[in-house]
Amino acid sequence: MNAAVAELWPYLMLVLVGYLPNEIWRVLGLVLARGLNEDSQIVVWSRAVATAILAGVIAKLILFSSGALTTIPLTVRLTAAICGFLAFLAVKRSVFAGVAVGEAVLLLGGFLFTQ
Amino acid sequence: MSSRDTFDSNAAAFFGGVKSALTSVFCLVLMGTYIGIGALAHDFGLASWWLALSTVLVWAAPAQVILISATGAGAPLIEIAIAVSLSAIRLFPMVVALLPLLRGQGTRLRDLLLPAHFTSVSMWVESLRLLPTIQHQHRVAFCNGLSVGYMGTAATFGFVGFYLAAGLPPLLAGTLLFLTPMSFLISTARNARMMVDRLALVLGLILGALLTYLHVQLDLMWTGMVGGTLAYIVHRVREVAT
After folding, report:
1. Which residues of B, range 20-79, sit inside 8 Å of A by Cβ?
2. Considering only residues 145 to 184 of chain B, which have any Cβ-Cβ distance to chain A shorter than 8 Å?
3. To probe the interface with B, which of A13, A26, A72 has the most B CB atoms within 10 Å?
4. B180 neighbors B56 (Cβ within 8 angstroms)
5. B105: phi > 0 → left, psi -120 to 50 → alpha, else beta; which?
6. Do A77 and B178 touch (CB under 8 A)?
7. Contact B183, B32 (CB under 8 A)
8. What is this model's ipTM?
9. What pLDDT, on a 0 to 100 scale, did the predictor assign at position B3?
10. Could you report the per-residue pLDDT of A82-94, keeping only the tens digit for each?
11. Quick one: CA dihedral B25, B28, B34, B36, positive or negative?
C-alpha cells in the first residue's frame, strides 16, 4: 500500500463502514415516510436490537478497556459503573448525578489502587 | 417561547434555531458526550480531523462510538458496517415522525435532505417540541439552524476531548475515557421507558461481555440480534398473556 492510500484509508473506511450503513436509515425514512408510528412492532423490535448493541459496546468499553483506562484496575472500573448507576436511580433518575458519581468513584479508586 | 414563533426571514429562523440549540440542556449533554468520544478517538489512534468528519457525516454518537472502538481494535470491516447499521435503525422511525412537521405547501424533497441527515436524538426531541410553535414556511430553516448549533458544539468538544486526552496524565485521561460508557449506560437506562428496552439493555450488557470474553466472531451483531430479539419475544409473550 503506498503512502497516499495509507493516509486516506481511515477516511475511506469512515465513509464505507460508518457513513453509508448509518445514513441508509435516514434516507429510507425520507423515502418511505408514511404509516409508521412509534408503537408499531417493527419499531419496538429495532429499538430493542439497537439498545442491546449499544449495551454490548458499553460492556466492552468498561470490562475490556484499552489504552489509558487499562491503567485503572477492572474492579475499580466495575465498581465505579455500578455506583454511578445506583446514584442515577437514587437521585431522581438524574443522568448528571449518575455520571458525576461514577467518575468520582473511578478517580478515587484509580488514585488509591493504581501503582 | 412566544418570541420564537415569528421570524421575518429564513435567515432569522436559522439563527433562532442556532440560539435555541446553544441555550438548551442538550448542548451540555453533547459537550460531555463528545469530550468522551474525543478521548476515545485519541485512545484508539484516530486523527482529530477524522473524528470531526465522522461527527459531520455520521452524526450519531452510538454509531460513532462503535465505529471508533471497532476500527481501532481492528475488527473486520463487514462487522463494523453491520454493527453501525443495526445501531442506526432507530433513525428510520425518527425521520418518519419528523417529516410531517417540516412539510408545508411548496416544501420540496431537496429541502428535506438536510433535516433528514441532521436527525439525531437531541435534534429530534427539540424539533418535536419547538417546531409546532413556528410558522410552517420557516420550519426547515429553524430546524437546520438548531442542528448546526448542536453539530458545531459536538465537533468542537470532540477536539477538546481529543487534545485533553493527549495531554493529561493516564489517570485523568482514563477518567475522560470512562465518560462514554458511563454516560451511555445511564442515558440508555433513562430512555428505556418500556420493559422491552430495559430487558434489551441488561441482555446486551451480559451478552456483550460474554461474547467478547469467548472471542466470538461478529460479537456486536450477535449481541444486538440475540439480545434485542429475545427481549422483544419476552415483551410479546407478556403482552399476549395479559
Report:
1. 29, 32, 39, 43-44, 46-47, 50, 53-54, 57-58, 60, 62-67, 69, 71-73, 77
2. 165, 170-184
3. A26
4. no
5. beta
6. yes
7. yes
8. 0.87
9. 47
10. 999 999 999 998 8
11. negative
Grid look-up 459531520 returns B56
The terminus-to-terminus CA distance of chain B in angstroms comes to 43
Distance CA B226, CA B116 (A): 29
Residues A101, A84 contacting (CB under 8 angstroms)? yes
- CA distance to partner chain B, nearest, from residue A70 (Å): 8
B74, three cell numbers: 481492528
Q: What is the pLDDT of residue B129?
A: 84
Confidence at residue A65, expressed as pLDDT on a 0 to 100 scale: 82
- Residue B191 CA to residue B184 CA, distance in Å, equals 10
pLDDT at position B5 is: 60
Cβ-based neighbours of B214, under 8 Å, separated by 6 or more:
none
List chain A residues with pLDDT less than 50: none
Instruction: Please state, as a whole number, how many other Cβ atoms lie within 10 Å of the Cβ of residue B1.
Output: 6
- Look at the pTM and tell me if it is higher than 0.80: yes
The list of chain B residues with pLDDT below 70 reads 1-5
Q: At residue A14, what are phi and psi to the nearest 5 degrees?
A: -55, -45
Cell output for A110: 484509580
Q: Which of A13, A88, A26 is nearest to B91 (CA)?
A: A26
Task: Tell which residue, A56, A43, A22, has the closest CA to residue B227.
Answer: A56
